[in-house]
């Protein structure tokens, strides 16, 4: 099985995607820092960052593993990762569902906002876990878009949000996977599973609101094909940038567990 088309590919939208990924790391990095603190990632660890994107989690890992550790960063598109390559960071193009990873080789395998885009998520988790050494750690983070809303309520927002979800599903993306990821982890041979679940409430114009506005922008053409109107898209973007609006964002589940010794 191969990775399906990635609906948020950089191809033809490099600047938009670079800006969206900058907001994504600003939103997600604090949760990743707490996750790595809880695991205790330290000097000398060998780490794998899968679906590394623009490399913000890779950079966090490099800071912790020090001069004696290493990080392998893999993604379908490595253009934003290549500047990170060094004696401690190896960058490789990789399709998780069709290409093997080194087996039982890493103290930590990390994946953030990756599994929701894959057609076989439990198989993907098994592949990630197989790369973890006995006693090592698997760390994942996945969102659930079903919690999103704006207040005061807006019918135009609801229509745009529904078409966003339909477009994501049509592209092979499960926008609600964050609500299932813990169950999938519980189905694996893991010990000491822990998780943090965060739902941001923020004003329009905040980082999480602008992040979703960027995702809307990336999928707008596909949404129109499925029936979204330009008026609804314009209204949704305006609400996401309006400080008088309260935005309830994605539910972000950050989880980690050990592979048995």
Describe this structure in words.
The chain has 261 residues and is α/β, with parallel strands linked by helices. It has one domain: Vaccinia Virus protein VP39 (Rossmann fold, 3-Layer(aba) Sandwich). 38% of the residues lie in helices and 23% in strands. The chain contains seven helices and ten strands. Strand 4, helix 3 and strand 5 form a beta-alpha-beta unit. Helix 1 packs across helix 6. The longest helix is centred in the N-terminal third of the chain and has 26 residues. The relative contact order is 0.17. The mean pLDDT is 93.
What structural keywords apply?
Rossmann fold, 10 strands, 3-stranded antiparallel beta sheet, elongated, 38% helix, 7-stranded mixed beta sheet, 7 helices
Summed up:
This protein is α/β, with parallel strands linked by helices. The protein is built from seven helices and ten strands. Helices cover 38% and strands 23% of the residues.
Main β sheet profile = 7 strands, mixed
Enumerate the spans where pLDDT stays under 50 for 5 or more consecutive residues.
none
- Please, how many helices? 7
Beta-sheet strand percentage? 15-25%
The chain-level mean pLDDT equals: 93
Structural class: alpha/beta
How do the SSEs run, as a string of H and E? HEHEEEHEEHHEEHHEE
CATH topology: Rossmann fold
Report how far the terminal alpha carbons are from each other: 30 Å
Number of domains: 1
Fold blueprint:
Layout: H1 14-39, E1 46-50, H2 56-65, E2 70-75, E3 89-93, E4 106-112, H3 121-130, E5 132-144, E6 149-151, H4 155-170, H5 181-186, E7 191-198, E8 201-203, H6 207-225, H7 230-240, E9 246-248, E10 251-258
Parallel strand pairs: 1-2, 1-4, 2-3, 4-5
Antiparallel strand pairs: 5-10, 6-9, 7-10, 8-9
Helix pairs in contact: 1-2, 1-6, 4-6, 4-7, 6-7
